[in-house]
Structures are given as C-alpha cells and as structure tokens.
Amino acid sequence: MGLVDKSLRNIKDGNTYFGIISPNDDKNDKKIDFSTGDSNNLVESGRQFCIRFDLNENCYMIKDCSFGSGYGSFMKLVTEMKIKDNTLINIGNNYIVFTLGVDELEPNEDEDDIDEEIEKVLSVKVFRGELINYSYVFNESQTNKIYIGNNESCNIVLNDNLVDDIHCSIEYNKERGWIINDGYNNKKSEIGTWISLSDEKKIFEGMIIQSNQNIYECHIIQ
Fold first, then answer.
1. Which of 49, 55, 127, 158 has the fewest CB atoms in 10 Å of its CB?
2. Is the CB of residue 198 less than 8 Å from the CB of residue 64?
3. Is 3 helix (H, G, I), strand (E, B) or coil?
4. Cα–Cα distance between 32 and 38 in angstroms, integer?
C-alpha cells in the first residue's frame, strides 16, 4: 500500500498511517471511499492505525491511532500472551476488558503487600453494544483455569453463534501473571481471539490485523 495523492504525511516522518478517506474529502480527487471502494458510501475519514520502523530494535511496530473512533484496531492472537491492566479483546460480537486489582485485602496492608497481590486478581467486563454488560472477578487461589466460550460449562459464557463452545482460556502463572490462549485442546478457534493494538506491538511474519472491518496480513520483506 502506498500514499494517497495529496497526503499530509511527510515522507521523512518515519510513520505510515492506515485509515479512511471519505468521498467528500478534499484530498480525495476521485471521490472514492477508500474503506470499501464504493463511491456512494459516505464514511467519516480518519486514521485507524500507524506502522513505524524502530531503528533501535530493527523491526516494524504497529499501534492503534483511532482515538476512540469505533473499537479500534486488533491483532489475531496466535500464541499465548500475558494480560496487562486494561487489555481489550474482541471475540465475535463481544468486547472484553481485563483489569488487574486487589481482592479483599485487609485495611492495614502496606503498599508492598498490595503491589504483590494486585496481579493475582483478574476483573473481567463483557459488553456487546449497550445491551449486555457482565462483570466477573477471578482470584488465582480460587480459579485454576478460566474458560470463555458459548458452552454453558464455561466460566464466562458468550451467547453468540460466532463463538466456539470453548473459544479461549486464561490461566494464572506465578512468574508471568494471567496468560490468555486462543482455542482449546491445541485447536484454534474458528474466528480467532483478537487483541487491541492500543499498546504498540512488534509486527511479526504472518501477523493478521483487523481494522474497520478490513483484514490485513503482514509479511516481512528482507
């Protein structure tokens, strides 16, 4: 993909932005909707994500830059990943936010004790538009493994035909914290588990990105 004519990007700025230009944008001479190719479909223009080359790490980095427009850009989970505070994932029609917290600590606990306990509690909030809003709290001492899926036996049940019976799982690791894996029994889920690119991430060979209903596959050319 290249630069659109009359782009505001400077060729030396080191960043490449991916996004939407609407037919009525002044920079769009042919009045084409660059999100769908449909000249009759008016959309709001804006940046979706940015790719830059990191000279120190000698690699490409990607980050969402939609700034609250929709739900942003996501990457497909292919290997296990550590859950950080405020991690956002997408599964089918559902969006899930993970936060790390402290569960039932005594009031006299000092700050060092609190820091040690924070990552042992995982709070999960599931939402689908404005219709569904469920919250869960898991403690590593009480939960061996958390299953998310369409099956009633799961710890978090998503009533969604796009979701597998057991779509993904989460497990607590004493050294690394809460770890999420896509699929079940070494079989990946049908549509995948998608991780928000709100934090900058390194692009790897075959990385799959979803943004504004578009899918991108990344290949590193040496």
1. 55
2. yes
3. coil
4. 6
Phi, psi of 138 (to 5 degrees): -125, 140
Judging by beta carbons within 10 Å of its beta carbon (0-12, 13-18, 19+), is residue 197 exposed, middle or buried?
A: buried
What dotted CATH number matches 77-195? 2.60.200
Tens of pLDDT along 162-217?
999 999 999 999 889 999 999 999 999 999 999 999 999 999 999 999 997 889 99
Rounded distance between C-alpha atoms, residue 38 and residue 132, angstroms: 33
Amino acid at 180: I
Q: 1 is written with which tokens?
A: 């993909």
Who's near 204: CB < 8 A, 6+ residues apart?
Answer: 218, 220
Name the token pair of 101. 């917290």
- Does residue 68 come out as left (phi exceeding 0), alpha (psi in the -120 to 50 range) or beta? left
- Whether residue 143 contacts residue 95, with contact meaning beta carbons closer than 8 Å, is answered with no
Q: Which residue has the tokens 């958390």?
A: 146
Percent of the chain exceeding pLDDT 70 equals 71
> What local confidence, expressed as pLDDT, does residue 1 receive?
41
SS3 152: coil
Kindly list the domain boundaries of the chain, sorted by start residue.
15-72+198-215, 77-195
